[in-house]
């Protein structure tokens, strides 16, 4: 296990380096001048020159990358050009919101997706199977922003049960926080559950036809024990991969959903930064989410070994 972790950790470092180069390089292709956007079209040229010097915008691209990468290695992701605040501070401010939304959405997706996938595989070619497949098709084909607007019209406008938008910290009012987060979490979880259902169904069908499952049934074990203890545990290996990837996507920010529900998470932060040409914020947020994505993949690999004993060899 330690040797496996060492090899995976060794592969992370060059990956992060290439990711940082790509993030910084692609950022330079965005049109516009951050200093000009900050100072205004009619600003004094001396002010624009001062801003360009302050944020190292007047240096060659390799020098700017070296300056930025050196700061990253010391935990400094730079400073927002527009609001004059450290990028690390902005990330830490938005991170709890994004984590809460991601965890709620993933919890909804796991409960619905894995449950529907198991039912679809166990009751293959029955009404349960057809209903689960229709649900998966619905989840995969329904745009998040459209579903979000419909839910707002139903539960906020017509029924008045939930707020249409906004965010309340759970430390201020937990009840209001859950009311504000349940709709965006369900919108995201609905789409994720569809993919989880399809993967769980496929894996369960393959496992249920295995010899060790037939042997467990021949021993007279209860069907629930056969399904949950013997079949599901082995079927979860590909599902773990998908779950880790989905969590990484959620942590990168659900842009459309956050915009529809006015959730102040990573998605809204990076959209505002792109429109304002705030290069430091875009680079910092994308690098952070890419690093989180890589770490989650590492955790998924570790979970493989813990779930499936055959992989420990």
Q: Would you mind describing this structure in some detail?
A:
Helix content is 76%, strand content 0%. The mean pLDDT is 79. It has 313 residues and is mostly helical. The protein has two domains: 2-73, no CATH class; 95-312, MetI-like fold, CATH 1.10.3720. Helix 5 (87-122) crosses helix 8 (174-208), helix 7 packs parallel to helix 11 (255-261) and helix 11 crosses helix 12 (266-275). The protein is globular. The chain contains 13 helices and no strands.
Keywords:
mainly alpha; MetI-like fold; 313 residues; single chain
Cα Rg? 24 Å
* Shape by Cα distribution: globular
Number of helices: 13
What multimeric state do the chains show?
single chain
Give a nutshell description of this structure.
This protein has about 325 residues and is mostly helical. It has 13 helices and no strands.
What is the secondary structure topology, with strand pairs?
Layout: H1 2-27, H2 34-39, H3 45-54, H4 61-73, H5 87-122, H6 127-141, H7 144-158, H8 174-208, H9 211-218, H10 223-251, H11 255-261, H12 266-275, H13 279-307
Helix pairs in contact: 1-13, 5-6, 5-8, 5-10, 5-13, 6-8, 7-8, 7-11, 8-10, 9-10, 10-13, 11-12, 12-13
């Amino acid at each position: 296990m330690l040797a496996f972790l060492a090899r995976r950790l060794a592969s992370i470092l060059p990956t992060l380096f290439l990711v940082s180069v790509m993030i910084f390089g692609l950022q330079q292709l965005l049109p516009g001048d951050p200093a000009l956007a900050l100072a205004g079209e009619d600003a004094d040229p001396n002010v624009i020159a001062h801003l360009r010097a302050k944020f190292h915008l007047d240096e060659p691209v390799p020098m700017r990358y070296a300056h930025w990468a050196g700061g990253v290695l010391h935990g400094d992701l730079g400073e927002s050009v527009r609001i004059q605040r450290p990028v690390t501070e902005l990330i830490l401010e938005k991170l709890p919101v994004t984590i809460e939304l991601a965890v709620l959405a993933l919890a909804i997706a796991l409960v619905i997706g894995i449950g529907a996938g198991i039912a679809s595989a166990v009751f293959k070619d029955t009404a349960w199977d057809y209903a689960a497949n229709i649900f998966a098709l619905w989840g995969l084909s329904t745009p998040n922003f459209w579903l979000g607007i419909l839910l707002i019209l139903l539960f906020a406008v017509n029924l008045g049960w939930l707020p249409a938008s906004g965010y309340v910290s759970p430390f201020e009012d937990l009840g209001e926080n859950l009311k504000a987060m349940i709709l965006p979490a369900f919108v995201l979880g609905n789409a994720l559950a569809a993919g989880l259902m399809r993967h769980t169904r496929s894996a369960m069908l393959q496992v249920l036809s295995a010899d060790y499952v037939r042997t467990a049934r021949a021993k007279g074990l209860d069907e629930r024990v056969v399904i949950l203890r013997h079949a599901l545990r082995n079927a979860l290996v590909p599902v773990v991969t998908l779950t880790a990837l989905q969590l990484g996507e959620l942590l990168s920010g659900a842009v459309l959903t956050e915009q529809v529900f006015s959730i102040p998470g990573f998605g809204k932060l990076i959209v505002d930064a792109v429109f304002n040409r705030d290069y430091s914020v875009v680079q910092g947020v994308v690098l952070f989410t890419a690093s989180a994505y890589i770490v989650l993949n590492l955790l998924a690999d570790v979970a493989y070994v813990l779930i499936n004993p055959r992989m420990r060899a």
